[in-house]
UniProtKB/TrEMBL annotation:
Residues annotated as transmembrane: none
Domain PAP-associated, residue spans: 391-426
Name of the protein this chain belongs to: PAPD1 protein
Domain RL: 11-79
Keyword Magnesium on entry: yes
Organism placement in taxonomy: Eukaryota, Metazoa, Chordata, Craniata, Vertebrata
Keywords: Magnesium, Metal-binding, Transferase
Organism from which the protein derives: Oxyruncus cristatus
GO MF term list: metal ion binding; poly(A) RNA polymerase activity
Gene that this sequence comes from: Mtpap
Length: 526
């Protein structure tokens, strides 16, 4: 659609700014169960023009309402009362979260047309497999998966609202701070249900240098000095964490994890239903989000392939929401990007090529690392590669099923396999902090399980008789890859594992048996 294309061409920063602004004009209302949509909108319009709204289910019916003017919120807040504090005492913090109940419920007729509720989570894999069987090509199967899993417009609005509500607290202490999402919520690769990573940003109001040059004095604020930036970060997060815990409506299970490499506060935001991680401005993580945003916008095949590979990995227990020796979604995403850089002709440019296109305003040096790359999508030449997703999926499994992981590492800056700088089983260069391996956590058995699954999948795609499977109503194509390969296949797999050290075949088969147990393990953290 034209709308899609026009939103696609915006820079990462433009999209962020627009959405943050939208979120500031937005409120969240817990609605009565017998709700007349027209009456609700009629009432809200008495406070100002309602630009957009949608309903969703989360412990009852909720409405996200975006006004055209920020002043409408103040007008609405003036009309809202404080909860009756008979059995509870309340913390008198007035937020943009309201509960509406009907004054005389009996007289109100129930809604004739049922409300349209926006889904906030994706369908289970079993339902997805059913849908995929009706498609006519692997390529259409992959787009179906993408459509079912990707963040919706409504879900993104809810994510930015969650950030905006946290920002209201941060502003009590730091009036010009902002809270922005980063990572999967904004890099175009987030799936419905993923956590919201957000960061506190104090550099919102960059003073114009001309203003500071005026007058005869060098002027600066007197500020509390601390021995390290890390300590300042820990103190700020500690206080804001306490603040959310003590006063934040709907903020529960607040955990301060201040000794992590990147200190953070984890909490569950009940009104929006999100798990949130709040940290303080992490510039490199933000650059990574923008880099992925650019890759995701350049070609529709990029996102379809990433979503497919990640769903495939999850089904086979190659990834897990608990931290451990598994490959992470971020590493998998980088492997897909690398594969797409290696196609002939390449489907996406290398990071060095994006850096060559950068102009002065794209210059970013962070902690001594050069993180510059072009932000204007129009400057990037589109690919001449016309390979279908059917081809690319098979080739992805083929490529990594036969990759020389012992000798080579994956480098997205160069778009080349380079000799490993050290002996980690899987070495993927951090695109910005060039001395870090983003897959340092992955051990040999996990890598070999990945290789075996990739080989098995390549083999299934090459060998399968699509027509026969469709006649027999058997899952085919992508659907066949999203069913755990199970015990029946383990003998077949042994044959396809020549070249993988025999001592680890045992580990691998054990881990296949464990696979089932793993996928049932409760998600702990990320």
């Amino acid at each position: 659609t034209d709308a899609e294309v026009s939103t696609r061409k915006k820079t990462f920063t433009e999209v962020q700014t627009e959405r943050l602004d939208q979120a500031e004009r937005t409120v969240l209302i817990k609605c009565p169960s017998k709700l007349n949509e027209k009456k609700l909108l009629q009432y809200l319009s008495s406070h100002g023009n309602v630009r957009s709204h949608f309903f969703f289910e989360n412990r009852g019916i909720n409405a996200l309402v975006e006004f055209s003017e920020k002043s409408s919120i103040a007008s609405l807040q003036d009309a809202v009362g404080i909860p009756n504090a008979a059995e509870h005492h309340v913390v008198p913090f007035k937020s943009r979260l309201f509960t509406f109940t009907l004054k005389n419920p009996v007289s109100q007729p129930a809604e004739e047309t049922p409300l349209h509720l926006s889904p906030q989570c994706h369908i289970p894999v079993t339902d997805l497999i059913q849908k995929l069987c009706h498609a006519d090509s692997i390529s259409s199967q992959m787009y179906i998966l993408l459509n079912e899993y990707q963040l919706t417009e409504e879900n993104i609005k809810l994510r930015f609202l969650a950030c905006s509500l946290v920002r209201d607290f941060a502003r009590a202490y730091f009036p010009d701070s902002t809270v922005k999402p980063f990572g999967s919520s904004v890099n175009t690769f987030g799936k419905l249900g993923c956590d919201v990573d957000m960061y506190l940003d104090f550099h919102n109001t960059r003073k114009s240098p001309t203003k500071m040059k005026k007058g005869p004095f060098e002027m600066e604020f007197q500020m509390k000095r601390l021995p390290s930036e890390r300590l300042a970060t820990q103190r700020i997060l500690s206080v804001i964490g306490d603040c959310l815990d003590n006063f934040g409506p709907g903020c529960v299970s607040v955990q301060k994890i201040l000794n992590a490499r990147c200190p953070l506060v984890k909490f569950s935001h009940q009104p929006t239903g999100f798990q949130c991680d709040l940290s303080v401005s992490n510039s490199i993580a933000i650059r990574s989000s923008e880099l992925l945003y650019i890759y995701g916008c350049l070609d529709s095949r990029v996102r379809a392939l990433v979503f497919t590979v990640r769903c495939w990995a999850r089904v086979h227990g190659l990834t897990n929401s608990a931290p451990g020796t598994w490959i992470t979604n971020f590493s998998l995403t980088m492997m897909v990007m690398f594969f797409l850089q290696k196609r002939s002709p390449p489907i996406i440019p290398t990071l060095d090529q994006l850096k060559e296109l950068a102009d002065a305003k794209d210059k970013h040096i962070i902690g001594g690392y050069d993180c510059s790359f072009v932000s204007d999508l129009r400057k990037i030449k589109l690919t001449k590669n016309t390979e279908t997703l059917d081809v690319l999926l098979g080739e992805f499994f083929e490529y990594f099923g036969n990759f020389d992981f012992r000798r080579n590492s994956i480098n997205l800056r160069k778009g080349k396999e380079v000799n490993k700088p050290e002996s980690s089983p899987l070495y993927i260069w951090n695109p910005f902090e060039q001395d870090l391996n983003i897959s340092k956590n992955v051990n040999q058995p996990q890598l070999e399980k990945f290789i075996a699954m990739a080989r098995e999948s390549a083999w299934i795609l090459q060998k399968e008789d699509k027509t026969q499977k469709i006649i027999n109503k058997e899952p085919w194509g992508l659907a066949a890859l999203l069913i755990p390969f199970g015990k029946s296949n383990s003998s077949k797999m042994k044959n396809r594992m020549k070249g993988i050290g025999s001592e680890t075949i045992r580990n691998l088969l054990d881990s296949l048996k464990l696979n089932n147990a793993n996928s049932q393990q409760k998600a702990v953290g990320k």
